[in-house]
Known about the structure:
Layout: E1 2-10, E2 14-17, E3 22-27, E4 32-35, E5 38-40, E6 45-49, E7 59-65, E8 72-81
Antiparallel strand pairs: 1-8, 2-7, 3-6, 3-8, 4-5, 4-7
Amino acid sequence: MKYVIQTETITINKNVDAGCNAIIFTNRGTTTVLINGQTLLANESMANNGLPGEIDVTRYDIVFSGAGTNALNIRRKIYVSQDFRN
């Protein structure tokens, strides 16, 4: 299967739909980030990896907490084809 890697950085509270096989959250800011209630301190990461062919359909609730810089990096592995040849 073919896939692309998509990255984005968010700085405001929002919901993020996964729609991918694997997702990695990395807190690049100085504030604490809550991801579906799980705490992610500055410079910590959290990953959810699927088995081949699986798609994560979770809606992640992102909430920044405290004073400082908000910066959450999100990296997704997104399938673009199920054909190994194309």
